[in-house]
Amino acid sequence: MEAMNNLLERRSIRRYTEEQVSDELLDQVLEAGLFAPTGMNRQNVVMVAVRDKETRDCLSRMNAAVMGHDGDPFYGAPCVIVVLGDPENYPVVENGSLVLGNLMNAAHAVGLGSCWIHRAKQTFETEEGKALLRAWGLKDTLVGIGNCILGYPAESPEAKPRLDGRIVKIG
Ligand SMILES: Cc1cc2nc3c(=O)[nH]c(=O)nc-3n(C[C@H](O)[C@H](O)[C@H](O)COP(=O)(O)O)c2cc1C
Asked: Is 11 within 8 Å of 156 (Cβ atoms)?
């Protein structure tokens, strides 16, 4: 039941305290990401956990630039896990998305807030993005799948109503 409740109660969090995510909780969340299933067990997904403020702010700026504004699309979260996939090992978007799901559900399980922030693909298609990948010791051909922002939640939003007609049972 605890696992079921965790899945039902996780929400996207868009307000955070300033406290940095502890090593212990970050490692637990990352481990959950490592154990996401991957097609043919390719394990072709890489997670880059960023707590360094300069790098976090740089990623936020690049993400905002994709949308043509200069706000903070990371909602003040002090930590972001960038999820990237190796396109040489099909299927990259599916595998990366499952990793992101594990990260968000694990974050909720350990008392952290999280939210998928999009535009990782565009971020790492830029020259600046590719330079970051190289600086992190990664291949600059990796594809950005999504960013999982993390922090201690400063809000607890209600779930939005589920749309009707999304379950079909045959038999
Ligand atoms: C593929 C994907 C991309 C998303 N991108 C963003 C985003 O860029 N910014 C944001 O605030 N939320 C983003 N979200 C979060 C959704 O808005 C959120 O999951 C949805 O409103 C449902 O809310 P819940 O997660 O609390 O159930 C994204 C979610 C997914 C799955």
From this structure: yes
Pocket test for ligand 1, best of 11, 82, 118 (most atoms within 8 A of CB): 118
DSSP code, position 148: E
Q: pLDDT tens for residues 104-136?
A: 999 999 999 999 999 999 999 999 999 999 999
Position 89 scores a pLDDT of 80
Q: What three-state secondary structure class fits 151?
A: strand
Is 170 a residue whose pLDDT tops 90? yes
Q: Which of 103, 116, 122, 156 to mutate to test the pocket of ligand 1 (most atoms within 8 A of CB)?
A: 116
In this prediction, residue 22 carries a pLDDT of 98
Name every residue whose Cβ is closer than 8 Å to that of residue 8 and which is 6 or more positions away in sequence: 159
Phi-psi region of 134 (alpha: psi -120 to 50; beta: other; left: phi over 0): alpha
Phi, psi (degrees; rounded to nearest 5) at 108: -65, -40
